[in-house]
Specification:
By secondary structure, the protein is mostly loops. The protein is built from no helices and 2 strands. A hairpin with a 2-residue loop joins β1 and β2.
Length: about 325
């Protein structure tokens, strides 16, 4: 029968079972609720398990779980850890209902509440585990098998290690040795160590160009018309971040967008100070984001922002409506 071999066509107002339970106006099974073409479970009636909270009987459904994030059970209700009833799938066990792991069910409130112990739950809760995630005997050195990785045993223990001694197929001859800050890892740009011929610097390891190391592990050069983040925001004509406003080589903020309040340079007509460039009012320059950013506080600016002021204009909570011109209360 040819018809039985044709793929169903959702949207033709004809129910093609067993694939469809409704289709458009052909919706007697769930009047007005048939899922339209193009959505998940198109041409079916709403059901628990379709990932959408769309029935009065549901409190949640899969990831549509605002009522109880990550605790929606298979019956589209919120699982309650501590009621001695195992409600899958969030729960493996619950209190005395612990047949799957007698006496080992995670207690309510624990990070693994109502779950049976397993490697990967972030808790050292089995005799076979030395660690689990960042818990246990070796924080940040726990392998995926919940044993402490040992750099130098010629065995790669993921995810901690990418190589180990002679087991170095990922970076032949370049595996960093035991004791190195990046031991048993392949050198990469971004590991804060100059350990590859292609690197001039790497993060904080920047003796070649202090404070000027780019994300590509090269010393940023302002004036080469290539913005090299994070050191540079722009460079000459490479100024998409601030067209026409890139500060030139030699400026205190060279190859940064500017001028702006917060660049530590008084470089705009309205600025009285800017960060450490505060000779006009040492230590008192109002910060970026303040109503009076990059200005020196003064009596009359409408804000109580000096130790000598009790009030200032309408900022007069200490003496409503009675603030004197010298910013004191009567």
């Amino acid at each position: 029968d040819v018809a039985s071999k044709l793929e169903p066509l959702c949207g033709n107002n004809s129910i093609e079972s067993p694939f469809e339970t409704c289709d458009g106006t052909e919706d007697s099974a769930c009047p007005g609720l048939c899922k339209p073409p193009g959505v998940a479970f198109a041409c079916t009636c709403p059901f628990c398990g379709d990932g959408a909270l769309n029935q009065a009987t549901e409190v949640c459904d899969g990831d549509d779980d605002a009522a109880c994030p990550a605790h929606c059970d298979v019956n589209c209700g919120c699982a309650v850890c501590g009621n001695n009833v195992t409600e899958p799938y969030p729960e493996d066990c619950d209190g005395t209902d612990d047949a799957s792991c007698p006496g080992q069910c995670g207690a309510p409130g624990a990070s693994n509440e109502c779950r049976c112990p397993l490697c990967g739950d972030g808790v050292v809760d089995q005799p076979t585990e030395e660690c689990d995630g960042n818990s246990g005997a070796c924080p940040f050195h726990c392998a995926t098998n919940c044993l402490c990785a040992v750099c130098g045993n010629d065995v790669i223990e993921p995810d901690v290690e990418t190589c180990d001694g002679t087991s170095d197929s990922a970076c032949p001859g370049s595996c960093l040795p035991p004791g190195d800050v990046n031991q048993c890892r392949c050198p990469v740009c971004g590991d804060n160590a100059v350990n590859q011929a292609s690197e001039e610097c790497d993060g904080a390891d920047d003796t070649a160009c202090p404070g000027q190391c780019s994300a590509a592990c090269q010393c940023a050069v302002c004036g080469n018309f290539t913005a090299e983040p994070p050191v540079e925001q722009c460079d000459g004509l490479d100024d998409a971040a601030c067209p026409g406003s890139c500060l030139p080589p030699g400026d205190a903020n060279e190859c940064r967008c500017g001028p702006f309040c917060g660049d530590d340079v008084v470089n705009q007509s309205w600025e009285q100070c800017d960060g450490f460039d505060d000779s006009a009012c040492p230590g008192q320059c109002l910060p970026p984001g303040d109503l009076l950013e990059c200005m020196c506080p003064t009596c009359g600016d409408g804000v109580v922002n000096q130790g000598t002021e009790q009030c200032d204009g309408f900022d007069d909570g200490a003496c409503p409506g009675a603030c004197l011109p010298d910013c004191t209360c009567p």
